[in-house]
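::Amino acid chain::
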Amino acid sequence: MAVVVSINGVGSLGETAQIHLLPSDWRILCLGDILDDDSDLKVKLAADDWWWESSTDEFVAEVFKAVIRRHSRATDASSPHRLAILQCGVKMFEAVALAMIAIKENHEDLVAAKAAFDIIISKLGLTIPREQHMILIKYHSDLDGAVETPHYWNRGRLGRDHERYQAMLRRALRMQELAGQYDLIYVEPGRHSQCQTQDVIRGYLSSLKILPDLLKPTFERIKTIYALAGLSECGKSTVADMIHKAHGTNGARLKMSYFLNGASNELGYDIYSLSGARRAAALLNGLDAFSRYHWYLSTLTIESVHRYDSIASLKSYLGSLLQIIYIETNEDLRLERSGRPRIRLEQKDAVKKERGAERVKEIADIVLDNNGPTENLEEALRALLQERERSLD
């Protein structure tokens, strides 16, 4: 039976991202929020006011029956999984329930709300399962400000009720935290990449002897990943070749499409149908696995970066480890280098622009001018690579 671990947080702290950033492996089962495969609760929430207008008993009953159904899937004895990861566990939903009970009964007494919650659970005859390990992620040590954006559970009308809910949710979580109900509490520092949080989670699970060979830190030996962006025939392959030559056998030239197509094959459906964040997570997992198998590498170069949503997500995951290089070359020069009719170049550009290729420049760490001789490009790139090496020393 799988060890069950929940990753909890309030606001937009990226619990979903942390689940997606875990290695893609048959031994790990990742389950999202309790709505993912729960049609019964989805029907209830289709009514905008059910969240607020349902009775206290009905609210607790429907939410916690869904919690129990999800836990049953996580602990299915016939499953080969060794680890089940839940997005928000039972304590998170208990905090939600306490906040809503206080609002529905028009008071702010969380102790009374907890007593009412326990009575409802007992009356329903429910046995609430617990995860073996519960992780809480937050940005602020006191949880104030950690619920500035709507929690994914916030359904129905906003305004005064929403503000009260947020305040009560913070208090309920703080009460749980002070009671020592979370096994790991991680406060994310500012300007923090998602992969740094992922490594903390992996380190914690490895310390518990949960798949330690699999849950190693991300990109253990990689110093830099260069992502090359720009319009058609701007010189991405040329720059990739220059970077590869500069790093010799310690570097590798890679194509994004190779990893994304591999992810599609593994999933059994087209990964391009998913969000940019999900594609970025799949790309990250592919690159991480590649770097682990090729232990001697310190630098990776990925080409064909022209989907803004996925590269922006990848940047948030990797932070400064990912260096985005945007290459600028005017159209006439690109046309000359392509050796093809202008209409062909314009067609290729149109596809890339629609995907947000030009917007990648907005988040690029480096913008390279490739309108001059190759020698100028080599000199500029050499200086940039040297500066990068110095920054890593």
Observations:
- The two ends are 45 Å apart (CA to CA).
- Residues 145-159 have pLDDT under 50 and may be disordered.
- The longest strand covers residues 3-9.
- The CA atoms of residues 172 and 178 lie 10 Å apart.
